[in-house]
Specification:
Shape: globular
Number of domains: 1
Radius of gyration: 14 Å
Number of strands: 6
Number of helices: 4
CATH architecture: Roll
Mean pLDDT: 92
Distance between the termini: 35 Å
Order of helices and strands: HHEEHEEEEH
Helix content: 25-40%
């Protein structure tokens, strides 16, 4: 496992975003499951990931499968929110300096996407 993924796991496990900014490259691109346009830049990606920590990272959140390569990882997760089981994947790419340059989130089923859209919208609006 790489330092980047180990650091990401620490952020998720602790639900503490204080180390998150150091993990992100300035030109990182975030792909949301509910926003059609890529979100470019450290500030907006940080905002999305902090909101996701609040929405997703409850006591039921867990990574169930991981495929980690030299500069890419796919981390499959499961969590439950309001009785809805959510299955998804974080697809992460990082550069030679260990900074995340691309973060893509995929979610299923449709009921989960609708719930996440509602919850993330509320978090990002506040």
């Amino acid at each position: 496992m790489t330092d980047t993924i180990l650091s990401w796991h620490r952020v998720v496990r602790s639900r503490d975003a204080s180390g998150l900014a150091d993990l992100l490259a300035n030109d990182v691109v975030f792909y949301s499951p509910v926003v059609h346009a890529p979100q470019v830049g450290k500030a907006i990606t940080f905002k999305y990931l902090v909101a996701a920590l609040h929405v997703f990272a409850n006591d039921s959140f867990r990574y169930v499968r991981e495929v980690v390569c030299e500069s890419d990882a796919v981390l499959e997760f499961e969590t439950e929110i309001d009785g809805i089981t959510i299955n998804g994947a974080d697809i992460i790419k990082w550069n030679a300096q260990g900074k995340i340059i691309e973060f893509k989130v995929m979610i299923r089923p449709l009921k989960a996407i609708n719930l996440i859209h509602e919850r993330m919208g509320a978090m990002l609006a506040s």
